[in-house]
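Good day; I would like, with your permission, to put a structural problem before you. The record follows directly beneath this note:
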Amino acid sequence: MLQSDEIKKILKSKLKRKRYVHSLGVQKTAEQLAKIHNESVTKASIAGLVHDCAKNLSGKELLNYAKQFDILVDGVTKIQPELLHGAIGAEIAKRELCIEDDEILNAIRFHTTGKAKMTLLEKIIYLADYIEPNRNFNGVETLRKVALSDLDQATLMAFNNTIKYVVSNNGLLHPTTIFARNDLLLQKR
């Protein structure tokens, strides 16, 4: 794996300034959540930093990479290819940034849609992306507080907010997000 400074240099050249600043915010938030919830701070830091490495790719580029990397493109991602940036980002992280740790790669892969049976690191990156300091939306402060004490509850709240937002904009819900939300609810029963 490349050193953090080398990764930052590469990301700075690939990402728009606002996206790069966001990535630094996710990195910092992921580190904080990892410390609180007893996860590897190093893994959280790298995954948080790299999570959006494919975010600035166009839909066409994402679909081309999906074909190149043999990533399944379902009906929803065919229409909304931006949802592929996590899966494509994990492949870029592996191939270009020499990240081989599967936990880090999966946290990058699922940071947008989530998935059933999310690991602690996957939840941390999903939430860090959602609540990092540059995010400003109704309820973000409450979500930040909950994330400090109950990662599952905060993840569930984030899924609920995302689903409400997508539905209110008449968008397509990715089934993986629904499965992830239902899985968290079933665990609580």
Summary: Residues 17-36 form the longest helix (20 residues). The chain has a mean pLDDT of 96. The CA atoms of residues 63 and 78 lie 8 Å apart.
